[in-house]
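Report of the visiting student (M.T.), summer placement. My assignment was to run the structure pipeline on a short list of targets and document each run. The first record concerns Type IV pilus secretin PilQ.
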Amino acid sequence: MRIKNEERMNKSKLGKTTMLIKMKKLIKNCSVLAGAMLFSWGVHASTLQSIDYNVLPGDKVMVRLSYSDMPPTPQEFTTNSPARISMDFAGVDSGLDYKTKDIGVGAVGSVTAIEAGDRTRVVINLSELVSFNSEIQGNAYVVTLDAGSGAGSAAASKPGTSSSYTASSEFDITGVDFRRGTAGEGRVLVTLGSPNVNVDLRQEGRTVIADFIGSDIDPDFIRRLDVIDFGTPAQLVETSRRGDTVRLSVRGNDRFDYLAYQADDLYTIELKPLSKQEIERREREKPKYTGERLTLQFQDMDLKAILHTLGDFAGINIVISDDVQGSMALNLVNVPWDQALDIILKSKGLDKRKEGNVMMVAPADVIAAREQQELEANKQQEELAPLRTELIQVNYAKASEVAALLATAGGEGDSSKVGVLSERGAVSVDARTNTLIVRDVSSKLEDVRRLITQLDIPVEQVLIEARIVTASDGFVRDLGARFGVSDTFNSQEAATSGSLTDTNFRLGLLDGQATLDDRMNVNLPVSNAAGSLGLTFARLADGIIVDLELSALEAENRGEVVASPKVITANQKEAFIKAGEEIPYQQSAGGAAAGGGATTIQFKEAVLELKVTPQITPDGRVILDLAITQDTRGEELVFDGVSGGAPAINTQEIGTQVLVDNGETIVLGGIFQHRTKYDETKVPLLGDIPLLGWLFRNTSRENSKEELLIFVTPKILKQGLKN
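After the run finished, the structure tokens were exported:
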């Protein structure tokens, strides 16, 4: 009879709980706690929800204990060694997910809350015993502790009283202002009439709320400020009066952190923007449980009844194995239902499997054994199943590459690679039609088709447009002279000196009239001169003639060559662009020293070449692996005094990797060359004579600049060449 009565009681409790949960779904504002408390042995008047603290001027600390309802007056007592203040709250539960909150300010080290029986003890751990003041403020119990300057005793005031002060102003809050910090943080500055104002700071969603308890505010500062234009995480600042409390609400975006601090009569709330790394860290640390939150409080409740209660709350069907037995006590406050389910299953050694809207719950070892049996049965069925042969057309990939992915481990293959086919399966390739010939059981053939459907897709292509710009700027100036002296000898012309290239008369007498070239004894002209000036400089006594010819060349050139090649290549496939020449040169089989042998013509490349391999990233950008080479014809080498050997090649090369947005043009870099050249040819001694030395001197100045720039623009082709 006793067992039957207990079963009726459990069924009655389960029915009441289920009814209350269904009412919660209809109303949404009711709590499952109302139904769960029907099963608890005692009903508590209040629950400790949070422990907060504020730092007051002078290293004073205000500890605030927040409850679900008005807390009872605690029994307080202190101890000297260790220094502690203990408070027992009768009929109060602890709803905290932690036992100790570290503070480390002033004389306060930490605050510990422990639930024992029908009461909760809160212990404030101190470095030394200090004076304190405590009072009840609405649903909170506030303890204000002095800084602790070596006081040897503590004078605890009676609960329910608070320290009094004289405000320095008519209002407790005399100003509210907003400013932007240097690091982009938003600061709300609250000017207090007295530094002893109690503040309750918390965050609700995207809003930071500061309640100034027992305070009044200048009516001029009850307003709403739109601060979005400041470019900080703060968007809206609003002040309002709620009874004897002034509420300051700061609404921010969804990416900020906040802190508050007080210096004398200035209270500051600061919203700091989060860095990218901090945002990613918070995303990773987000809880994996997404179920609707609920509160459960059970004492010695049947385990199956608890699981059915969770199933009704979540709206899923739960099938419970007969191996699930026993009961448990449970006290969960405001947790997601899926987290509550995992806690129950882990504590009882259970596991779950879900298919659609049905969840099966059984002991973990039972589920593992059942799955092992299913695997063995499937393996046996696969070994006995008939083999089928199927032809699978591969459209975009190479059939040989796909076949390598399908091959099984073992045999001649690499044992570290696991394929899709079974041990009995085989695959071959028809290269002519790019077709796979697969032989395996039906289940594996379905896996092969599904895999090929995912892999055999068109490879994205990239259009790479390169612009190779070569610019040159040159300037050349040459100056030269020819100079000669001639005289007559026995009525015949005679030159004083000669033996120069353009002088016809070397030494001796000339018949008849001498030409100008015959009279030029100093020969330093400009080659390929643009112009020359010849004149008889002087005819001296006794028929002596001084001749002078000046020649000059000044050349200036500017050039720009733009090459714009384009190439399309598949993703992760190399493409190259090449432009230049092949330089021919003679090569003798026997060599010049051996008297020469059979001579052949060889070619040497001197090209401007661009090699690029694109890789499309998942976010639509392109990684380019680039290699750029510029070869130009150099000087012709001379071997053993014989010219005509292989020419030298001047090489400039660069290799780089860049990440580029789709359609973006970047400058890969370039090569800038500036060449300055000065040549001077002169007659020794005579060419160094001031002013007159120009007649015995040839000068040449050359100044040239060359620059090579390479631009690259990658474009991802979504639909072949249609775009």
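The chain has a mean pLDDT of 76. Residues 2-27 form the longest helix (26 residues). I thank the supervising group for their guidance throughout the placement.
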